[in-house]
């Protein structure tokens, strides 16, 4: 009976998958994908449409159980990550032990020494680890009962538990607020527990405390469901609201059909009110130009986040966006005017004539100038953070018998999060 119960739980767990690896528009070391979500890959897999066409090297690396080579191959081809992610579940079938291969790929997630120059590479490695665990989940969801038990054996589970127990204390050192809901470390820990079916070995309250650290990630809602934490969500949402994370709270309220308990419009208005309050200098007359600019940026970011949330959840009738958009235009115009004024005020250095006889008007060569003085957009990659924050809603009505909602608090400190190559002003960007 115990074996049957274990099998049933394993199959049910792998029936619900996390959504895709987030696409925090790529930068150094970034591995991002928006085009393909695991559910899309799962559908192709079930229909027999999925096979390794573009990257046969993936099969070879899996056959050889070369976890290090697999990591490097994904990193080298990260520009084509959507295609890679579509083929990896199929390639994993070629491994003697797909689960062991993925576990071995986790080595290096927490290096003994971190070189500041290699931070971007570490971020890329961590994203690859998460993605491989997600791809393994896709493979597991398409196996029969016997194959599933053979692949996720007790020995494999024990290895996964050892890794999770090694990682868990490291999460205690993370600043929940500084992570701004986008912690790769917390995400990897939860994904590890979910993929290898070892949630029963961990306290639900402790797992619930990690949800605010991943609340901005697309996989958050599905991870919560798969880990049996759905009934903990009211407590998680309350924590987010109390700590100025109303955007995340609204997204999760929609994902778990809790909008009657957590009304979205009042939460969004409260978010803007707090943003404007924080954006008001204590002594306006003494505020430096830099401080004033930061104040405007915070309000502008908050307005855009609220508008985006309204549009994603179709709340326009309840919360018209026109006044908000007018305020955005006003702030952007003031920002542009200030930038032009600053550029005009900058002293222009005089250049001597070639013969050294005083100064004269500069004769420029347009083509040459373009070569030596490229536009800003040519010199710097323009990062556009425009992915929607809509968590997938529940696909069915299955529920879990769990304890009461979790209650816990954030650290009062605030900070910036650089985990995915972007700098966010906490807590005004979502």
Automatic annotation (TrEMBL):
Q: Return the protein name.
A: FRIGIDA-like protein
Query: Keywords in UniProt for this one?
Result: Developmental protein, Differentiation, Flowering
Where does the record place the region Disordered? 15-45, 340-361
Q: Which Pfam families match?
A: Frigida
Where in the sequence does UniProt note compositional bias of the Basic and acidic residues kind? 33-43
Q: What processes in GO biological process is this protein linked to?
A: cell differentiation; flower development
Domain of life, per UniProt, equals Eukaryota
Q: Which family does it belong to?
A: Belongs to the Frigida family.
